[in-house]
Amino acid sequence: MELRYNNTMNLNLDTTQFTKVSDIVVPDIFYRRMKTGVDEIDELFGNGILPGSSFTVTARAGCGKTTFLLQLFEALSKNGYDVGYASGEENTFQLAFNCRRLGVDNVKVANLTDVDTLVEATKHYDALVVDSFQALTTKEEKNSRELESYAITKLVNAAKLNECAIFFILHLTKGGVLKESRLLRIVSVRAMSSLVCLLRKVLYLPVNVLTLIKHLTRLNVLVRILKRFLP
Hints:
alpha/beta, Rossmann fold, 6 strands, 8 helices, globular, disordered C terminus, 13% strand, 231 residues
């Protein structure tokens, strides 16, 4: 994935002069990471999820994107964080059914795709899933490129302003190509879903993602698998 700025977006990145890193005062928020309680997962996110950060999660259909994020958010909720899952792909009944199967009880789910409604939701949650980026809508009339630019600008800025971490699910084509334009410039986290997909193919077992990752790390297998899938 190519990451670049685009003048159609305003992500509120202030221009600065070159400064020696030892002279930069790091804001307190960087030390207030949201912890899942699963050491291996927290380590993958740099000792916890940074409030206000934005991520994308991509993988082929059926590889476990929803499963991973529901279990991740359940772990966050058990540590006292308010979390929400906004879906434009599955209705809340299907999500609730899957949550019961996974032992997920505390994640709040909704069928929401409107960008401005989701922007408002960032004021009330510590972390949100947007499933999916391609399903986002707006009440204003926009073509697909304008909608993407609008969604990125509004949601990423709202996430930073309100210290709400956002996880965008992105679909891949049948050929494994990311279905997005080059405007999207937020961090991509592919490894977890790819890992679950691989393990399902190899082991043919139902997967509790967080537990499985924890045990595999202890066996020193996870590092080798991640190296296979990380860019």
